[in-house]
C-alpha cells in the first residue's frame, strides 16, 4: 500500500476510536531522496533515505494536545503506536486549559497538488558533475527525489501534495577562503543549463586567482545575484509578512505599514503557492490560495494570516502556517537582461552571495551582514579583481526602494537546501537586482 492510501486508512481507523465530541487532525511528512556529497569533484558519501512521520492533534471542545511519531505504512504497527498516543493525549486534555484562539477547518475541502519533475537517474547527474569538475575542487551536495505532505481529519477531509525536485549546491574551491559558490535547482534537469552554471563558476575561480582588492567603506553601485537576494528574503520572511507581526508592530516593514515608506514600483512580492514546492494546505486543514499578494508595485497590500491570528483578530485565514512565514516566495522580474548584468553594472561590485544577515535596526528594516565567496570589483563591464570580505549595513527601503535601478528579466528557482529532520519544501523565485548604491561599513 502506498503512503497516501496507508495514511488515509490509518486516520480512518483512528477516527473510529474517538470518544464523545473529539476531533482528530493528522499531518504526514515524507520523502524519498538520494543524497550525494562531493569533494574534489568526487563522490565522498552517497545514500538514499525514505522516511515518513505523522503529527496528530486531538481536540475536545477548546482543548487540544498534539504528538508526533514515525509512520511505517505497516497497519498493525502504526495503529498500535497511534492508539497509545491518543490514549496519552486524552489524559493530557483533562489538564490543559481552553484555548481561546483554537481554529481548525470544519468544512471538508479535499484536494491534491502534484508537481511533477523530469529527474534523471542520480548516477547520470553524478557523472555530469564529476566530468564538469575535472581538474577542479568542487565541494557540494546533491539532493534529488520526491517530497510529499498529507492532511486528514476525522471529519472526512483528505489533502495531498507531492513534488519531484533536485537541488545541487556547490562551491568551486581555490585556496584558503577563496571559493565561488553556485547552485542549480528545479524540477527538470537540463545539462546545458548546468554546464553554463559550471562555466560561470570556473570564470569566477579564474578571477579569484588575481590579487584581491580591499574596498574602503562607502556606497558603491552593486549588482546582487539571486542567491544574495535570497538571503534578504529569508530574513524578511521570519517576521515581515505575518498579520500578527503587523498588528503588534513588530514587522521590519513597519514604515510601510505606517505609510511613511514604500519600495520601488518594480517590486511586487507574493506567496505563490501554485508555483512552489510546498503544499496548498496547512496543519489545521485550511487551504492556501494559488497566490497571496504581499507587495504590489512597491505598496504593501496583504498579509499571511494563520488560523490563530484569524481567530484573534476576527479576519479570515489564508492558510498560512502558525509561524506566518512564506514558503513559496516570488519576486517580480524587471527588464534588465540577465546576460548583460556586468555590462549594465559598468563599474562597481558584483555580489554573488551574502552571509550572516541580521537586523541592525529592525524597526527601520536596516540589515547588516557579510559578503562571502566570490565578490568582485567590476570595471567597464569586466571583472577586474576579487574583493576581500566586507560588511554592509543598509535598508530594504534603499536597496529595493529609491536606489533600485532594475531587476533582471528572468527569475531563478532557489530551493531551500535545509534537510534537518526532513527535506524542506520551501522555495523562492528571484531575479537579481542592480542598485545605484549599497552601503558598506568595513
- Helix tally equals 10
For the report, how would you describe the main beta sheet? Answer: 7 strands, mixed
The structural domain count equals 2
pLDDT < 50 runs, ≥5 residues: none
Mean pLDDT: 95
| Rg of Cα set | 24 Å
Oligomeric state of the chains in view: single chain
Separation of the first and last Cα atoms: 59 Å
- Please identify the structural class as seen in this structure: alpha+beta
Helix proportion range: 10-25%
Report what the structure shows.
- There is one protein chain.
- The protein is of the alpha+beta class.
- The protein folds into two domains: 3-208, PmbA/TldD fold (2-Layer Sandwich); 218-440, no CATH class.
- 23% of the residues lie in helices and 38% in strands.
- It has ten helices and 22 strands.
- The protein has helices at 3-15, 75-93, 122-132, 191-208, 226-237, 243-247, 254-257, 307-313, 341-345, 396-402; strands at 23-39, 42-60, 63-70, 111-115, 137-153, 158-175, 178-186, 218-224, 269-271, 292-296, 299-300, 328-331, 348-351, 354-361, 366-371, 375-379, 382-386, 391-395, 404-407, 412-415, 427-430, 433-440.
- The strands form four sheets. Strands 1, 2, 3, 4, 5, 6 and 7 form a seven-stranded mixed β-sheet that branches.
- α1 (3-15) crosses α2.
- The protein is globular and about 75 Å long.
Amino acid at each position: 500500500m502506498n503512503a497516501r492510501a496507508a495514511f488515509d486508512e490509518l486516520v480512518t481507523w483512528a477516527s473510529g476510536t474517538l470518544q464523545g465530541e473529539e476531533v482528530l487532525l493528522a499531518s504526514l511528512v515524507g520523502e524519498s531522496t538520494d543524497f550525494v556529497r562531493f569533494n574534489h569533484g568526487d563522490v565522498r558519501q552517497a545514500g538514499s533515505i525514505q522516511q515518513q512521520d505523522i503529527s496528530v492533534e486531538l481536540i475536545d471542545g477548546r482543548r487540544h494536545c498534539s504528538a508526533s511519531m514515525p509512520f511505517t505504512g505497516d497497519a498493525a504497527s502504526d495503529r498500535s503506536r497511534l492508539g497509545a498516543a491518543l490514549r496519552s493525549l486524552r489524559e493530557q486534555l483533562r489538564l490543559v486549559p481552553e484555548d481561546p484562539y483554537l481554529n481548525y477547518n470544519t468544512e471538508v475541502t479535499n484536494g491534491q497538488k502534484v508537481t511533477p519533475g523530469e529527474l534523471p537517474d542520480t548516477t547520470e547527474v553524478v557523472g555530469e558533475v564529476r566530468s564538469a569538475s575535472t581538474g577542479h575542487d568542487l565541494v557540494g551536495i546533491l539532493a534529488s527525489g520526491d517530497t510529499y505532505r498529507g492532511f486528514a481529519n476525522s471529519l472526512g477531509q483528505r489533502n495531498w501534495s507531492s513534488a519531484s525536485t533536485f537541488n545541487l549546491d556547490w562551491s568551486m574551491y581555490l585556496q584558503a577562503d577563496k571559493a565561488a559558490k553556485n547552485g542549480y535547482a528545479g524540477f527538470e534537469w537540463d545539462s546545458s543549463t548546468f554546464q553554463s552554471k559550471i562555466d560561470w563558476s570556473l570564470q569566477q575561480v579564474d578571477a579569484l586567482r588575481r590579487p584581491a582588492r580591499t574596498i574602503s567603506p562607502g556606497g558603491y553601485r552593486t549588482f546582487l545575484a539571486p542567491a544574495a537576494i535570497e538571503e534578504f528574503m529569508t530574513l524578511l520572511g521570519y517576521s515581515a509578512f505575518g498579520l500578527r507581526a503587523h498588528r503588534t508592530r513588530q514587522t521590519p516593514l513597519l514604515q510601510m505599514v505606517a505609510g511613511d515608506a514604500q519600495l520601488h514600483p518594480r517590486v511586487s512580492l507574493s506567496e505563490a503557492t501554485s508555483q512552489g514546492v510546498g503544499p496548498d494546505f496547512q496543519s489545521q486543514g485550511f487551504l492556501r490560495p494559488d497566490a497571496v499578494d504581499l507587495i504590489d508595485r512597491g505598496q504593501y497590500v496583504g498579509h499571511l494570516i494563520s488560523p490563530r491570528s484569524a481567530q484573534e483578530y476576527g479576519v479570515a485565514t489564508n492558510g498560512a502556517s502558525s509561524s506566518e512565514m512564506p514558503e513559496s516566495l516570488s519576486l517580480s522580474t524587471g527588464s534588465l537582461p540577465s546576460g548583460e548584468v556586468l555590462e549594465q553594472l559598468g563599474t562597481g561590485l558584483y555580489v554573488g552571495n551574502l552571509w550572516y544577515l541580521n537586523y541592525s535596526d529592525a524597526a527601520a528594516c536596516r540589515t547588516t551582514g557579510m559578503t562571502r565567496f566570490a565578490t568582485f570589483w567590476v570595471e567597464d563591464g569586466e571583472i577586474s579583481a576579487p574583493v576581500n570580505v566586507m560588511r554592509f549595513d543598509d535598508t530594504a527601503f534603499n536597496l529595493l526602494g529609491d536606489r533600485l535601478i532594475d531587476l533582471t528579466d528572468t527569475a531563478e528557482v532557489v530551493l531551500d537546501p535545509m534537510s534537518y529532520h526532513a527535506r524542506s519544501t520551501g522555495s523562492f523565485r528571484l531575479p537579481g537586482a542592480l542598485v545605484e548604491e549599497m552601503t558598506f561599513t568595513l
